[in-house]
Design a protein that fits this description.
84 residues; homodimer; 3 strands; 2 helices; Mth169, Chain: A; three-stranded antiparallel beta sheet; elongated; alpha+beta
Chain lengths: 84, 84
């Protein structure tokens, strides 16, 4: 069975995010005072071939933890979708 | 009213994604032959203060189109969530 996994990787709230701060300054300099708390993360999409949804979730979580995110600085969340 | 907007920015399918290709090679070299089509995008989260949901959606779409994504190379999708 084929699954599509989406891994959202965001910097932990305690870690400075200069890219987000730059975007916030840019929007404010364009006159938008109503914006705050911009954070920029990564979204990793991949297709995987696994026996069942449980195995796919376990494997994707393992990949996210070991390769896709840096658990010291980043949090991640995972969504899995069965492909037809 | 406060809203949290999440903007997913992905490279268009026709645009090469070296970061995704590198991750795919890394996973394959770790023995995972069941992975394919890795793409790496950006996830931008922000808080905005708007009169109503419609105005917030319009404004966030405008920001995504003009500043957060590059419409020549990237597609984006937007989700909006009302904050308590």
């Amino acid at each position: 069975m084929k699954f599509k996994a989406s891994v959202n990787v965001m910097l932990k709230p305690s870690v400075l995010d200069p890219q987000g701060a730059t975007l916030e300054r840019a929007l404010k300099s364009m006159g938008h005072r109503n914006v705050s708390s911009i954070r920029v993360g990564k979204l990793i999409e991949l297709t995987m071939d696994c026996e069942n949804q449980e195995a796919a979730a376990k494997l994707a979580d393992d990949w996210a933890d070991k390769l896709l995110a840096n658990p010291n600085m980043e949090n991640y969340s995972l969504t899995l979708e069965k492909l037809p």
